[in-house]
Write a structure and sequence with these properties.
Two copies of one chain form a homodimer. Chain A is α/β, with parallel strands linked by helices. Chain A folds into two domains: 4-29 and 285-390, Alpha-Beta Complex (Aspartate Aminotransferase, domain 1), CATH 3.90.1150; 32-281, Type I PLP-dependent aspartate aminotransferase-like (Major domain) (Aspartate Aminotransferase, domain 2, 3-Layer(aba) Sandwich), CATH 3.40.640. Chain A has helices at 4-8, 32-47, 51-54, 60-72, 85-98, 114-127, 167-176, 196-199, 226-229, 268-281, 286-307, 333-342, 366-382; strands at 11-12, 18-19, 28-29, 79-82, 105-109, 132-136, 149-155, 180-184, 203-206, 220-224, 312-313, 325-329, 345-346, 348-350, 354-358. Chain A has a seven-stranded mixed sheet, sandwiched between helices. The first copy, chain A, has a four-stranded antiparallel sheet with strand order 11-12-15-14, with helices on one face. In chain A, strands 1-3 form a two-stranded antiparallel ribbon. In chain A, strand 5, helix 6 and strand 6 (132-136) form a beta-alpha-beta unit. In chain A, helix 2 packs antiparallel against helix 10 (268-281), helix 4 (60-72) runs parallel beside helix 10 and helix 5 (85-98) crosses helix 6. Chain A is globular and about 65 Å long. The two termini of chain A are 37 Å apart. Chains A and B meet through helix 2, helix 3, helix 5, helix 6 and helix 10 of A and helix 2, helix 3, helix 5, helix 6 and helix 10 of B.
Chain lengths: 397, 397
């Protein structure tokens, strides 16, 4: 049984704050500053260039991939880390399309994170082969899986509402129609159990700065199913995905398995932050995390619905159908969220009207949920949010 | 006049080491651990998600781009940072090809860094439009600039030999032939004065972990000439290159200018290391750095040639024709370099037979050069390198 009081003690959480935005940026693991300082001083400073071998920097992306793989049901040796999620989406989609050359449709939904759609749009334009990016409503995806579809590209958990797709059923349906799947696990990895292997997923990608707590701009990850790993063609064919990077051959030969999805030099300092963050995950069972997350989100929904008549639940009511966040609609949601942040309840806002709250049992408990409910009720019911200063939009919302 | 004793004092250089590999990985600025610890604790830890606005993380890639721009002769506002160099090569080349749609040849040379060629190969295959990557010998580039060429893609300074292309002349010749240019400045930025604006360069890219000292896996940079910035189509069209990332529109609209070359969430911890590294550059004049670099490389070549008859100079003898490194050929160069590293002179080896030494005046002085010459002479002339332990290849060479 995961000891959540023990995991909570491992994070640096500012006094007086209830942090319900770990679905956007996880908090600082207390061990990170010292570990990163040691990496800087002992490895970069002390080993200089020899750190690539001596400190194991070169092998780190695969080592970290395996640690993430454990949380998402991937076979060992089939996840690597690096770049950003957008880049990994591009790689996965390009590889999948290359395996379904005769087909021209990429199917996705309007609940997908826009960057995934933008990357797909850019890729298809680049390919110039008459492909179509077909974007349908989330609940219409299943009906659109036809034998025209080359690739089904979805984010499992909707970033706005928390609505969760049935990965297993949609993957099976895609396969039955002869299509491949690319799953974005941005709001799944560390939020709920994922079973890539059991679902027969083809490609999956995700980021590490949300539920995995790797810090701002932490590296992304990519999974390639073992059955595809030896023949997936990496569109972004960089030297660290080469079979022998240090032979410096002029021609590209893909490396073994998912290694070929590596591109350029890995960001070692960010990788070290990810390493520390994953140490906390070694103490947790993702099934316990999911059970606790459901308790917390149910408690939150019940509390808010009882106390805040102006907020409309935007997330599915059935916990099995949502991820680890709860969203409410409110026309002046931006201002309301600024007012909450000023009172110490940090969630975030997603246009046009979504107030989003993430629940992360590693460091959020019932006491936090109850405090958040009380403050939200006070801010909403007193009209304290209705001030000009809360309505000025910042660059990042 | 740059005070090189003062800049040298800002780096953490291990006792007893002569570090001649700053052309591969620059050393640790002494200020980095404390500054990064403060970023972790005060910004990530203390501000959490609000750091994107309050700590200025979102604007950081452009801010850092301008600081690099100063060193490479770019107009303010036309350089941004992020991703890896391989990714930025892909973006630049894709954008350039889009502007020269009728033409099918990408011209490069066999002295280019292999990853640049691999990325081009992957891109051209992806485009499926019958493009050709034409790779010629470095000294034959000029003769191959014909009206078939869409893009001339070169690394200014050869990673193996240090041979330097004439950026101004080749750019002019490319333009006269109706082609665009993509310049890789990996071994130029911080090594010698670059004048992108004066050369009329179209696109340029580079990395920050070599002469700029941003640490292992530091972010790359990309320059787009002002005349192209508003119409370059970013192939990797991620959300942070969108005109309004936080509108979360389903369709992509490129941001203003070089901003559109941003892709995903920037690696803030690595960016902070780059920021500290650039503080040192604020104390240096790149023309002084170049003058000192020439003094040091001339001294090194003279010393080695006088003392080591078995080493053959692989770099141009004329300092105007080389970057800030000196390379020698030696059939057993790998073993010889391992022996040197064991004796405290750190350079590196590049297959098949290149022993490479980088000269970085910010922290290398005449005393270091003389010590290196003495140790190299001793190792080479005594046959101390000829031991089995030095011949076993490590993962990273």
């Amino acid at each position: 049984m995961t000891d959540f009081a023990a995991t909570k003690a491992l994070f640096d959480l500012p006094e007086g704050i209830v942090y319900l935005d770990g679905n956007s940026l996880g908090p600082l693991p207390k061990a990170a500053p010292a570990r990163i300082a040691a990496m800087l001083t002992d490895e970069w400073g002390g080993m200089l260039i020899t750190g690539w071998n001596k400190a194991g920097w070169m092998a780190q992306p695969m080592r970290l991939g395996d640690r993430i793989g454990r949380l998402i049901g991937a076979e060992p040796g089939h996840v690597t880390t690096g770049d950003t999620l957008s880049i990994k989406v591009y790689q996965a989609l390009a590889s999948a399309l290359e395996m379904r050359k005769g087909r021209k449709v990429v199917l996705s939904d309007s609940g997908n994170f826009p960057s995934d759609l933008y990357m797909a749009e850019g890729l298809l334009r680049m390919m110039g082969g008459g492909h179509e990016l077909r974007v349908v409503a989330p609940d219409e995806v299943e009906d659109h899986i036809t034998d025209e579809v080359a690739v089904l590209m979805l984010t499992e958990v909707d970033y706005r509402t928390g609505r969760r797709h049935d990965m297993k059923r949609l993957t099976a349906k895609a396969h039955a129609a002869g299509a491949l799947t690319v799953w974005d696990l941005a709001h799944s990895a560390g939020a709920l159990p994922v079973d890539l292997s059991g679902c027969g997923a083809d490609f999956a990608v995700g980021c590490t700065y949300k539920y995995l707590n790797a810090g701002p701009g932490g590296p992304a990850f990519i999974y390639v199913a073992p059955r595809h790993a030896g023949r997936a063609v990496p569109a972004l064919s960089g030297w660290l995905g080469h079979e022998a990077p240090f032979a410096f051959d002029l021609g590209y030969r893909p490396g073994a398995g998912v290694d070929r999805m590596r591109v350029g030099t890995p960001p070692v300092i960010q990788m070290t932050a990810l390493e520390v963050a994953l140490d906390v995950w070694d103490m947790a069972d993702i099934h316990d995390v999911r059970a606790k997350s459901i308790e917390l989100t149910e408690r939150f929904i019940a509390g808010i619905e009882a106390a805040c008549p102006t907020l409309d639940l935007a997330s599915p009511r059935d916990p099995a159908l949502r991820g680890s966040q709860v969203s409410f609609r409110f026309a002046e949601g931006y201002a309301a969220m600024q007012a909450l942040i000023a009172r110490g309840v940090i969630g975030d806002f997603r246009a046009p009207d979504i107030m989003r709250f993430g629940f992360t049992p590693l460091y959020i408990d019932e006491g936090d949920v109850d405090r958040a409910i009380a403050i939200i009720a006070d801010v909403m019911n007193s009209g304290a949010w209705d001030r000009a200063e809360y309505k000025t939009r910042a660059a990042v919302t």
